[in-house]
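Board notes (copied after class):
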Amino acid sequence: MKWSVVRAWGAKIALSVALMVFGADLWSLYLCSIEPTLAASIDRLNDWFGPTLIVLMALYHWLSPARENEAYKDVSPRLSGAVTVMLVGTAAAIALVSYSAALAAGTWLLAILVTIVIWRFASKNADQIGEARFGVTGD
C-alpha cells in the first residue's frame, strides 16, 4: 500500500473524528443550556474538546495531500481585507457577548463599518496595493 493512500485515509479519518468531536461539543453546550444541573459534569468533558479538536485538525492538515489547484491565486486586496476585518470583528464580538451584549453588538457594527471603509479604499486604490517582489538573488 502506498504512503499517499495511507495519508489520504488518515486525513479522512482525522477529519471525520474532528467533526464528531465538534458535534459532541455543540451537543454538550446545548445540554448545559437546557439542564443546568448537568453543567458541572459536562464542564469536565468540555475541557477535553478544545485540545482534542486542535490536535485532530492539525493531524488532518498534516496528512491531507497538498492540492495546487485549490490555492487562491490573485485574491483582490478588497476581498482579503474585508474578510479579515469581518472575521476578527466577529471573533471579538463573540468573545465579548458573555460580558455585554451591547458591547458585542457595537463591536460587530464597528467591524461592519470598518469593512465598508476598507472595501471602498481598496476598490479606489487597487492598482497601488500589492505585495513586494524581490529578485532571487535578494536585489
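Comment from the instructor: The chain is about 75% helix and 0% strand. The CA atoms of residues 65 and 71 lie 13 Å apart.
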